[in-house]
Amino acid sequence: MGEESIERADIPAERELPVLYRDEELVAINKPHGLLVHRSMIASDASEFAVQLLRDQLGQRVYPVHRLDRKTGGVLLFALNERMNSLMQQQFAEGKVQKTYRAIVRGYTPDDLEIDYPLRREDGVVQEAFTRLKTLRRTEVNLPFGKHPTSRYSLVELQPTTGRLHQLRKHMAHVFHPIIGDRPHGCNKQNKLFKEQFGMDTMLLHAQRIQFQHPVTGHEIRVSAPCQAEFERMLAVLFAD
């Protein structure tokens, strides 16, 4: 079975997207791994998209105010009208939305780390990029890898203060702790190991929480998403103790 068909197994069979938060102008869902946010020419194999599914589910037009990679699961926020879409996109652009992710990565990461490493866009423009890392747990698994008799992994919390394309994936690869299941920025040998040993072919990156001030009410909004089944399964396998 190919990579994309395995990843799409996380998409609910009934096509109901889990709603985490909703008011008159905003709605947040827990996006499954493998689901595109919207139609893309570079993913012609996809036939379903979060925008389309949520529109049909709610019976009204929805506007994604930010993006998640196809392989990333977790909190995805939509506006329910053009005005709110503009206001929320402005907050994202100004760095006023706090985003928190969880990831399982190769190796033992430091307790805390600040990754200040500019990233180059496809058009050659170099942009500043900054990520804060906090290690939540570490594990050593009785699984030989290369010359090593065991394998080491870390569960980390990541907070990007900029929103560059594939920022977390590229930053973790830059510090030699690639996210498990990431292609092409991760470790292909580790990805193959997880597929062979655990039948796992999902990128272990989860958008856990977003926090922002509601543009209309002024209230502090905090939306969290539980990890999805495959992420939870790998947490149980790797961090059993």
From TrEMBL:
<protein>
    <submittedName>
        <fullName>Pseudouridine synthase</fullName>
    </submittedName>
</protein>
<dbReference type="InterPro" id="IPR050188">
    <property type="entry name" value="RluA_PseudoU_synthase"/>
</dbReference>
<feature type="domain" description="Pseudouridine synthase RsuA/RluA-like">
    <location>
        <begin position="26"/>
        <end position="174"/>
    </location>
</feature>
<dbReference type="InterPro" id="IPR020103">
    <property type="entry name" value="PsdUridine_synth_cat_dom_sf"/>
</dbReference>
<dbReference type="Pfam" id="PF00849">
    <property type="entry name" value="PseudoU_synth_2"/>
</dbReference>
<keyword id="KW-0413">Isomerase</keyword>
<dbReference type="InterPro" id="IPR006145">
    <property type="entry name" value="PsdUridine_synth_RsuA/RluA"/>
</dbReference>
